[in-house]
Amino acid sequence: MDQLIYNKVIRYANNEDLEWAKHLINRVLSSFYKSDHFARAQYIFDQFINGGKDVFGGSSAGQYIAVAEDYLKPAGLIHFVERKKSTINISLLIVHERFRGNGVGRSLLSYVEQYAREHGFRNLHCTIADTNVIALKFLSSNGFSVIGTTKKRHRRRVVETSLLCKQVEDNACAV
User: Which is deepest, 74, 77, 84, 140, by most CB within 10 Å?
Assistant: First the structure.
């Protein structure tokens, strides 16, 4: 489902997106999480390209990667996962530094929100490192609310995180 928003096109990812996505994901996430982000990017692309199913039999019903292009240049991506109980989990939302502040992130969120409504999902969830203040502020300004906190282990390091939720349907984010 391609969607044109002003000078931005939101489309599903393809194999040609993998290399720039690997470098973008690594560059942005390395300051928050110590992990092999190149391997993670490869893993989520493999799942998406192979029909959206978790190749290790995980609990996801479907996995998708959407790419935002701004004037035909890749500007950002969003990885979202269909979960049980009518939830979509946004596991990655990354906008290239050159395109921040131009509505790319908002367009990617709108794309997933539209997908959720069209497919009967009730809410969107994501987990963000508490040190990623910009992402927390961005998501809050786009209708997400913090519904809990937790600690996640990333390569011998514990990261404090916030669980955020946005309702697609009334009363969907009740804890």
Answer: 77
